[in-house]
Amino acid sequence: MTPHAVEPEALKSALSQLLGDRAQSLTVVREELTLTVRAADYYAVMQTLRDAPEARFEQLIDLCGMDYQTYGDGRWEGQRFAAVVHLLSVEHNHRLRVRVFCPEDDFPVLDSVTALWAAANWYEREAFDLYGIVFDGHEDLRRILTDYGFIGHPFRKDFPLSGHVEMRYDAERQRVIYEPVTIEPREITPRIIREDNYGGLH
Fold first, then answer.
1. Residues 150, 154: Cα–Cα separation, whole Å
2. Cα dist from 167 to 97, 153, 163, 174, 179, whole Å
3. C-alpha closest to that of 123 among 76, 64, 202
4. Whole-angstrom Cα distance, residue 163 to residue 153?
5. Nearest one of 53, 133, 62, 131 to 96, comparing CA atoms
């Protein structure tokens, strides 16, 4: 029978003791625990989380990229790119979110954790493809969702919604061709006008 899940505060205390100063922060929001680590400690911490008896996060459930460029209406002052990983311990029936920021915005690089969890393979490729995060040590880091020859990383906040190029099939050449985008950029944010005290708002 699977034991009851560990309370987030109890898990927070246990991981704080286990990781010491390698845990940059441990926060509980909506009963979910998030651990933030430095890029330099990332691989070692992940290995500890997998192998330590009190942690035993045997499964990597998800890994995704993040771009904080416009986070908080532009008030964000930290590093721009991060990877967020969700881990599961079947043995202890608890979950953990791990966040690690890339040290450099111009060329974001993190260690790959594919040697710890094979499931990270395609997730890291996806984060590379969509955000341009390079995972050092990944044996086959190449695009996975975008087309051959795609330019840029489409989930970055500064990537144009219309893209850089458009593609179509050319019957005369009998192949797909790429051309400059012909769509004119336009304002897509709806304009909202509210009267004073509209709906009880001040």
1. 9
2. 38, 17, 11, 13, 6
3. 64
4. 10
5. 62
Residue 99 token pair: 């966040």
What's the whole-number average pLDDT of the chain? 89
Give the span between the Cα atoms of 8 and 5, in whole angstroms.
9
Tokens encoding 166: 């458009």
Q: Distance between CA atoms of 49 and 43, rounded to whole angstroms?
A: 10
SS3 137: coil
What is the tens place of the pLDDT at every residue in 147-167? 877 888 999 999 887 777 887
List, in order, residues 6 or more apart from 100 with CB less than 8 Å away: 36, 37, 38, 39, 42, 82, 83, 85, 110
CB 12 within 8 A of CB 33: yes
Q: What is the pLDDT of residues 57-76, one digit of tens each?
A: 999 999 999 999 988 887 88
From start to end of the chain, where are the E strands?
A: 25-29, 32-37, 59-67, 81-89, 94-101, 109-111, 134-136, 165-170, 175-180
